[in-house]
Amino acid sequence: MNDKRRLKLKKFYLHPITVFIFFIFVVVLLSGILSAIEMQATYNTINVNTHELEPTLVAVESLCNFDGIKYIISNATKNFLSFAPLGMLIVSLIGLTIAEGTGFIQTLSKRHIKKIPKSTLTFLILFIATISSLINEVGYAILIPMVALIYFIIGRNPILGIITTFCGVSFGYGVSLFVGSTEISLINYTEIAAKLIDENAHIALLSNLTFIIAASIILSIVGTIIIEKIIAPKIGKYKKEEEFAETEKYHIINIEDEEQKQIEKEKYEKRGLRFALIIGILFILFFVYALIPDLPYSGLLLDMSEKTYLNQLFGDNAYLQDGFTYLVALFFATAGVAYGFGAKTIKNDKNLIENASKNFSNIGSLYILMFVVSQFIAIFRKTNVGIIITAWLASLLEHLEISGIPLIIVALLLIAISNIFLTGTANKWLIFSPVVVPMFLQSNISAQFAQVVMRAGDSMTNGFTPLLAPFVIYIGYLNIYNLNKERPYTIKKSLKMISPYFLLISATWILLIIGWYILGIPIGPNVYPTI
After folding, report:
1. 3-state SS class at 137
2. How far apart are CA 238 and CA 374, in angstroms?
3. What is the distance between the alpha carbons of residues 308 and 298, in angstroms, rounded to a whole number?
4. What is the pLDDT of residues 372-381, one digit of tens each?
5. Cβ neighbours of 340 (radius 10 Å)
């Protein structure tokens, strides 16, 4: 009887790779069913020249037919190679593994980072992760592997570091200390939508600056409390695997020799850190000079064909956008090599390459996971289901006769729900802006504040959907550092671990938006929530 009860209680843990493969089959089958019942939606886009609304009809595209299967097969390689997290992660890991292979990250972590109080370190990680959205989604590929490694070195649970970083980037996405790529994505749509009501409407680049600076700090403070008081105690400590010798060996230790070796080691480590510091400073100076226009050989990272400096930095063809991940990897690689020569931890180029290559050996399963997830996301997007659901939610808002605070809350929640199915700020705002902005203006709420609501709704659920491409890095690294391979971190478990953060930060976003509106605090220079 007891054996039968044990069998009933036994749980089966499917690897995320298996689950995503199952999801692919479900989406393909579902697309056939929804296409057969003619599931579709109509949303309005704004003609840039006439400033008039033009209806756009979108229907579910079936992949459960000859053409659909042909699409899946013929685009598999393309979907994988064009999967943004893949390239960013590989490039960032090259720099990090070189820095790790020389001992640079280990020494830096043990000598300096370990001395930082836990709560302070958590705040710094969350704050850096939050403002990393200044340059799209590079924070996922750079910070998640780096923080996990640092936590492992300093003796703190790397799983907690992965969760902290992922939550910081995802649920604070779109806020920073300065305007960035999000402004480029939003402002054009906001201004065109505002001209439906006011032909002279203009949305300045700095119109949300005050709000995003305050939000980045507030979210990091609240996030630190959530991580340290709720999530960290549940995760517990990380038990490292230890190797024990089969036989006991006794030998005499010469204390003076050991002390001399330790002194010599610390001497070389300090010298290595000095070398790395010098190279790091020179690299940062080069980076800053590459962002300054109109100086001799400057502006290397700018798109000088653009008129405004912000577009030169964050435009579609800006070199900073495309090259930032590589520059960060190059920074760690050069600093690591400088440390290695100074600390004498590397003998030659072959030794350096061998040490760096070893650290790639444990991420093979992540590449397989990325291949499967890239197919799942591409197939789901091809069906148009995400666009249709977003269009339905925008239409629902348009037919509600509400204003003021109820309008703000409902718009915020509908945008947040749509983000689960249609990730990407610009894609959603293209559909929502012709509805949200005019409704806000007619309720005496500024178009700039509508853009703030868009930011908040986009961030609230950003990390709580497997359709977010960088979600694969999060769940992949959870399983890399998972000590119990028989019980992998599933999609359900991965979401459950961040659910307290998701719920409390969502509540923080809502209170922040409503409080800002009630108090009438400027959201940017001479820009207010109300007209």
Report:
1. coil
2. 31
3. 16
4. 999 999 999 9
5. 24
Find residue 524's DSSP bridge partners. Answer: 527
Q: Tell me if 477 sits within 8 A of 144, measured CB to CB.
A: yes
- Helix extents (H) in 290-361: 309-314, 319-343, 349-358
- Mean predicted lDDT score pLDDT of the chain: 89
Place of tokens 């980072």: 113
Percentage of the chain beyond pLDDT 90 is: 69
DSSP string, 188-248: HHHHHHHTTT-TT----TTTTHHHHHHHHHHHHHHHHHHIIIIIHHHH----------SS-
DSSP label at residue 60: P
Q: Are 391 and 140 in contact (CB under 8 A)?
A: no
Q: Which tens digit of pLDDT belongs to each residue from 168-179?
A: 999 999 888 888
Q: Give the predicted TM-score (pTM) of the model.
A: 0.91
Residue 107 pLDDT exceeds 70: yes
3-state secondary structure string across 354-379: HHHHHCCHHHHHHHHHHHHHHHHHHH
**Helical (H) or strand (E) element with 433:** helix 425-442
